[in-house]
Description:
Blueprint: H1 2-20, E1 24-33, H2 37-44, H3 47-53, H4 55-59, E2 64-68, E3 77-81, E4 88-97, E5 101-110, E6 114-126, E7 129-139, H5 144-147, H6 153-173
Antiparallel strand pairs: 1-7, 2-3, 3-4, 4-5, 5-6, 6-7
Amino acid sequence: MIVLYILLALVLLIIILAVIAPKNYDVSRSVEIDKPKTLVFDYLKYMKNQDEWSPWGKRDPNMHKEFTGIDGEIGATNYWKGNKDVGEGEQEITKIVDGERIESELRFLKPFKSTSNAYIVAKEVDKDSTKVVWGFSGKNKFPMSIMMLFMNMDKAVGKDFEEGLASLKEILENK
């Protein structure tokens, strides 16, 4: 009988945690780059350029990568398989608002399966300066949602975005 009460208590606890767990996440960071928006956007729309500034490429320089489709166009896909720091997955360009926004779907395969929507936005500050916003969002599905009670996605990924944007700024301002 005690075992039954313990099991019921555990089930109730899991249900309560599932109800209060965060259902969505949205992480973004921005940087101002001292270059015109056209130049910045033309660089950002190519996924192969991300290898130069992405923090994950630095974490596994031997990462296996495959590109399909026409880079910089809707449908272009970047597949990667790397060490435990970068995992395995693919990114597909799903929408381009020319000169303004690139949207893609991130499909993580390892260490766990999940899908997120990523975006990069270029906004003109003035004729020689551009604000770049890089982010991603998605839904936390059960049981992953319960893990999000103990992990802050913004803190976990935000530093990576900041590192990547700092590299992007350095690369573009030195071109």
